[in-house]
């Protein structure tokens, strides 16, 4: 019985450690999202417009989407770092929205979008499996 409890504690310790990393990843993804948004809003030539894309917005719209998601992610990462309960739910929501936005952003910057999708999945896993009362 106690070995089962020890395994559970070890799992929660791992989830706690990954949650701290998830807060840092969410913060970094938010910062980079802000920079990507500013770059797109400014009309930078960094992004290539693709023809025949069904979810096509103009670059300024994508810039605002990334800027807003980035700012919200930074705020939530701060709450997650201090262990706020609201931040756990908010982190799952903003990471889910980020996954959707990055999926739609794939034609513009595929490698970056795939990387952020993977990081968002790690964030969702970490904050959804961690139970702060156990550790």
Gyration radius (Cα, Å) is 17 Å
Mean pLDDT: 80
What class do helices, strands and sheet pairing give? mainly alpha
Sketch the major β-sheet. Answer: none
Low-confidence spans: none
Name the assembly state.
single chain
How far from one another are the termini? 18 Å
Question: Strand share of the residues?
Answer: under 5%
How many strands in all?
Answer: 0
Pattern of helices and strands: HHHH
Q: Outline, from the CA principal axes?
A: elongated
- Counted by DSSP, the helix tally is 4
Report helical residue fraction: over 70%
Number of folding domains?
1
What do you see in this structure?
- The mean pLDDT is 80.
- Helix 1 (2-41) runs antiparallel to helix 4.
- This protein has helices spanning 2-41, 59-81, 85-105, 110-129.
- By secondary structure, it is mainly α.
- The two termini are 18 Å apart.
- The chain has one domain.
Describe how the helices and strands are arranged:
Elements: H1 2-41, H2 59-81, H3 85-105, H4 110-129
């Amino acid at each position: 019985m106690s070995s089962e409890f020890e395994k559970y504690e070890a799992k929660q310790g791992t989830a706690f450690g990954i949650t701290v990393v998830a807060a840092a990843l969410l913060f970094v993804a938010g910062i980079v999202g802000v920079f990507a948004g500013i770059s797109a809003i400014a009309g930078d030539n960094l992004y290539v417009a693709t023809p025949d894309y069904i979810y096509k917005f103009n670059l300024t719209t994508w810039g605002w989407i990334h800027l807003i998601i980035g700012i919200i992610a930074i705020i939530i990462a701060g709450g997650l770092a201090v262990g706020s309960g609201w931040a756990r739910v908010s982190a799952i929501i903003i990471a889910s929205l980020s996954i959707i936005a990055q999926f739609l952003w794939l034609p513009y910057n595929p490698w970056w979008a795939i990387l952020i999708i993977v990081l968002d999945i790690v964030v969702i896993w970490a904050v959804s499996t961690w139970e702060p009362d156990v550790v």
